[in-house]
Amino acid sequence: MPMSYRSGNGLRLIIGLIVALVGVVTYFVNTSKNPYTGETQHVGNITPDQEVQLGLNAAPEMIRQMGGEVDERSPDAAFVEATGRRLVTFIPSNGEPYKFDFHLLGDSQTVNAFALPGGQVFITRALFSRMTSEAQLAGVLGHEIGHVLARHSSEHMARQQLGQTLVVAAAVGSSDNRGAAIAQVVNNLTQLKYGRDDEREADAMGVDLMTKASLNPQAMVEVMEILAKTAGAGRQPDFLSTHPNPADRAKEIAARIAEKYPDSKNLPTGRPLHHGE
After folding, report:
1. Closest C-alpha among 82, 66, 53 to residue 122
2. Cα–Cα distance between 63 and 88 in angstroms, integer?
3. Among 82, 118, 210, 221, whose Cα sits 20 to 30 Å from the Cα of 95?
């Protein structure tokens, strides 16, 4: 006897619920305590050693896309590397098992800095050229180190996998495509929300690192002012951005400095940036 339309829909719903349940259980079972933040995280099955290898594998392509790497023997590239190394010395066990390397990229148009899982940290010429002090550079590099230590990439990948599983579950369980489309929108907005939280956590860790390195953390506020100027009038609304508004970030950074490092205003800004080749 052929299955009725209604019973077919019921079976689809059951299968969809099973797919969703497996995805949710898998996500919440795979946890790891972060030794640097003290947080219990959902990072899937990826290990820190795998993060290192993933970053090393992805680095050449990222370098190619961003104008190539400035020769490490150049004064500017050496400055970036030395500033990064200065920060790393203030991470317990030098950030082990991560392998930190700091790269200056030749892209003179894109104002950006980013880190790959495992410790490959990059800053573009466009951003580097807008900074004037070692402390500002340390703020940017410390922020990116924070992303690595907080394992934000692995968290994001785990959440993305869960989100895609739930989208598939919605597609299986729905009698039309509307439910899947709604689930996809919700998943995307969730990823944006977590991204903004990650940025705030990385800002806080960057402030902590540069202050431990005896560099004035107020320079991080100056970096936010640089980003605000380069964002331009066409910047998309903060709610739909993976990065909080620079002005909002500056306020939060200033509040953290006032609370944790009230005496840091007398710290030096380090060496000036002369922007050679």
Report:
1. 66
2. 22
3. 221
Q: Are 226 and 130 in contact (CB under 8 A)?
A: yes
Looking up tokens 């994001």 gives: 156
What's the token pair of residue 47? 């290990």
Q: Answer with the residue of higher pLDDT: 5 or 208.
A: 208
User: Across residues 252-263, what is the average pLDDT?
Assistant: 95
* Burial of residue 179 (number of CB atoms within 10 Å: 0-12, 13-18, 19+): middle
Q: What strand order describes the sheet that includes 113-115?
A: 101-105, 120-124, 113-115
Contact 250, 229 (CB under 8 A): no
Name the one residue in this structure whose structure tokens are 């800095």: 113
Tokens of 81: 């590397």
Rounded CA gap, 165 and 248, in Å?
33
State the residue for tokens 């099973």.
18
126-183 pLDDT, tens digit each: 999 999 999 999 999 999 999 999 988 887 777 666 556 545 545 555 555 545 554 4
Checking if the pLDDT of 188 tops 60, the result is no
CA distance 217 to 133: 12
Mean pLDDT of the chain: 79
Identify the DSSP state of 117: T
